[in-house]
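Internal tracking record. Fields below are filled automatically when a chain is submitted to the structure queue. Please do not edit lines marked as system-generated. If the sequence contains nonstandard residues, flag them in the REMARKS field before resubmitting.
Queue: standard
Priority: normal
Entity type: single polypeptide chain
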Amino acid sequence: MSKAKAKAKQVKGKIKEAAGDAMDDKSMQARGTAERLTGKAQEAAAKAADHLKRSKN
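SYSTEM-GENERATED OUTPUT FOLLOWS
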């Protein structure tokens, strides 16, 4: 996954978290948190892959 897609996933998760908070929907908040953290992990993986590619050259 690209860093841009991972960032988009983080933003989408943050929006879900905020919506869940506004509607007092704990389930939606949890799904948003999970999506945001998944995006962070995917971004870290993409950064690591980029670093490995650069170090090979």
